[in-house]
Amino acid sequence: MKVQSNAYTLIYSAIVVLIVATCLAVFATALKPAQLKNIEIEKKQNILASVRIASDKTNVEDQYNRYIIDSYTLNTSGEKIQGIDPFLINLREELKKPLSERNLPAYICSRNDSAFLVIPVYGKGLWGPIWGYVSFMKKDSVAEGMPYYNTIYGVNFDHQGETPGLGAEITQSFFQIPFRGKAIFNEQGNFVSIKVIKGGADPGSGHEVDGISGGTITSKGLQAMLDTCLVAYEHYFKSAN
Predict the structure, then answer these.
(1) C-alpha span between 193 and 229 (Å, rounded)
(2) Is 24 a member of any domain?
(3) Which whole-number Å values give the CA distances from 27 to 3, 17, 58, 110, in the listed order?
(4) Phi, psi of 166 (to 5 degrees)
(5) I want to staple 73 with a disulfide (CB 3.0 to 4.6 A). Which of 8, 65, 81, 160 is the partner?
(6) pLDDT over 70 at 57, yes or no
(7) Is there a domain that residue 34 lies in?
(8) pTM of the entire structure?
(9) Is residue 59 part of a domain?
């Protein structure tokens, strides 16, 4: 076959493409376990961060095993579902389902003789998805119809592509710390969530936090994320079985 012929060029190109594709497939397969492990580590770090426990790649496994004493999957009636690993639930896919059909991950943390519930949240910002974890301190006893889990202990938010200096500020402590101590139920036991207020929250409100200056759409998306994700746990908040 002539080197300068069209047939030679086509065959040579096909062989090169095949070799490159094979190499990429081999590398992707070889690297996948490490990638999955990194995702697992980051997820555990974020869960711990929501209950104000610092960790890094060197100690996250020990910290997680020490403080996260249980995890399970719930339905929207607050009942535990057997056979579904909460750590493997894709919340983005669950949110596409009707509320009554969603699988809800829950993580229980024990720290300083107090119990905490950690739940994941997922929503949409200005340029892409936003997500995070919210932790609640458990009350030992409550009046009938009132929630065991109401007061936020900590939050940890992240994003994929929000604007630096604006919506991306949801990852910063100055935005996250004000969520601590806020309540998602009112005094009558009705779910009210948390309001992210543009222009400044009412200092006397137990349900409001300041929005991000210049990040209105991200702030609204974060509030919608909390409304949508937290209400799914309403029955569990009040039963805490």
Answers:
(1) 10
(2) no
(3) 32, 15, 26, 41
(4) -125, -105
(5) 81
(6) yes
(7) no
(8) 0.85
(9) no
